Amino acid sequence: DGGITQSPKYLFRKEGQNVTLSCEQNLNHDAMYWYRQDPGQGLRLIYYSQIVNDFQKGDIAEGYSVSREKKESFPLTVTSAQKNPTAFYLCASKVRAGTPRGYTFGSGTRLTVV
Amino acid sequence: RKEVEQDPGPFNVPEGATVAFNCTYSNSASQSFFWYRQDCRKEPKLLMSVYSSGNEDGRFTAQLNRASQYISLLIRDSKLSDSATYLCVVTPGSNFGNEKLTFGTGTRLTIIP
User: Fold this and answer.
1) Interface contact A90-B104, CB threshold 8 A
2) Which residues of chain A lie closer than 8 angstroms to B49, CB-CB?
3) Are A100 and A78 spatial neighbours (Cβ–Cβ below 8 Å)?
4) pLDDT tens across A18-43, in order?
């Protein structure tokens, strides 16, 4: 079955470390997105990619980096520059950019800084 | 003012009752509207799109009021399985091709047996 796989489900990071969250999709979707969710707040867009080898900053990109070398993969690196990284991270994809419909979300990665 | 505002709840409603909640949005140019459902510690899933004329999907009815800039969700004959957080989602219509989703903080609903 096609879908989006995020790994790991839970991740613990020490302060000052970089960590990379994996997002893989086998839906043949062009567009991929990273969101962050904090308690009491809506999902906020970190980065998005409309096509392979291209990505753009979202609303809260500071302290994060991404790459899109393959269509099916859009990893997110949380760097030590991100001041409050503890959050629930959600990856999403859809067939193509330019439409608000057809989002598929992964099951998320819960990152905790210890 | 937040772009999308929702009453966080919680709404505690007896099984079988009807419940409704609203969401307001600040950008009058917003073009597309959705309700997503999110179960505890899970990813959001699309419940339904919201169309200008209002639309129904089984026990769920969504309405859009552009003049007052709000959307609503009505759940009839509520079931225990309806317990979840309901996220109001709006696309601003001005950024990168109308595809940016702006999420409300969600309204938490608990159906009581």
Assistant:
1) no
2) 101
3) no
4) 999 999 999 999 999 999 999 888 89
